[in-house]
Design goal:
There is one protein chain. The protein is of the alpha+beta class. It has four domains: 69 residues, Topoisomerase I, domain 2; 118 residues, no CATH class; 62 residues, no CATH class; 61 residues, no CATH class. Helices cover 40% and strands 21% of the residues. The protein is built from nine helices and 15 strands. The protein has a four-stranded antiparallel sheet with strand order 4-5-6-7, with helices on one face. Helix 1 crosses helix 4.
Length: 374
Amino acid sequence: MIPEDKGRLVTAFLTNFFRRYVEYDFTAGLENELDEVSAGDLQYRDVLARFWRDFSAAVADTAELRISEVLEKIDDFLSPHLYPLRADGGDPRACPTCGSGRLHLKTARSGGAFIGCGNYPECRYTRPISGAEEGGSADGRVLGQDEAGNDISLRAGRFGPYVQRGEASEANPKPDRASLPKGWTPDGLTLDRALTLLSLPRQIGAHPEDGQPVEAAIGRFGPYVKHGSTYANLPDVEEVFTIGMNRAVEVLAQKASRGRATGSAPAPLRELGAHPDGGAVQVMAGRYGPYVKWEKVNATLPKDVAPEAVTLEQALELIAAKAGAKGGKKATAKKAPAKKAVAKPAAKKTAAKPAAKTAKPAAKKAAPKAKKAE
């Protein structure tokens, strides 16, 4: 088994700042205590209390440490692995780019770690933690020169291998760089392939409809073609270097059609005419069946009414019923009496209740008369 870089970092951190908890004696002693707890000879609460008391104290001791202090400790602890001896007897921590800086362990924004030159930002040399073991000679390997005589080199960066044109300098602090896409290996990289990467984005030509340039490139999410503000993904990286205008226009058109299908309003099935209050009345296809639409009012068609046979008059009645007072005058007039008719019976019922109450005293008066008759 070969340990990974993250495993080495975690082990180095625990060994330097929590040494007691990675020692064999601590693990063996804790196992014995757990056996006693299992046998009922020891209370688990006592075991946890002792463990947490000592462990919280160890955490408190490291809480005030600065990240630079932690990195320095780990850097020294892993130095035999990070900076192996060189065959020429030179300083293994000397920067191979600027020659004057020393290599140090650094942290990346992504949360990982890498090796970088102490002369940053003047020198931007970086490599992975295991770069020296995995073949440090590959980092900075010159593949050849471009037409201007600049060296084209293969580099090992914190995010993977990349190619670079020339060297960083005061006049050109950020030389051209391009990461190797998925499927490309450093061992199989040639000068021609490196130059094609550095030449991206590749200009395909002018779009036949508006004359704007169409280009192909490799981005964060893979290969794509671009026209104006429209980006369309390509299925294969190699197509970036071979795609022609016809294929590019086809891919862009497919992307545009998908955008219209998901983002645009659906087309109506029929146009029935104008509403008396203004606006078009339309028959639409909905998720739960066809319906008629007027402005923001949607009314579902009855099951016995086909969308091809519905008339404007039927649609107006459905819309008026759905919108209430927002419908046409004729529909509004029909709905108003219906509301009053419902209200009248309710009034009669409330009037009948007192009558029932007055009837009860009458019954009581009748009872004394019966007694007199006796």
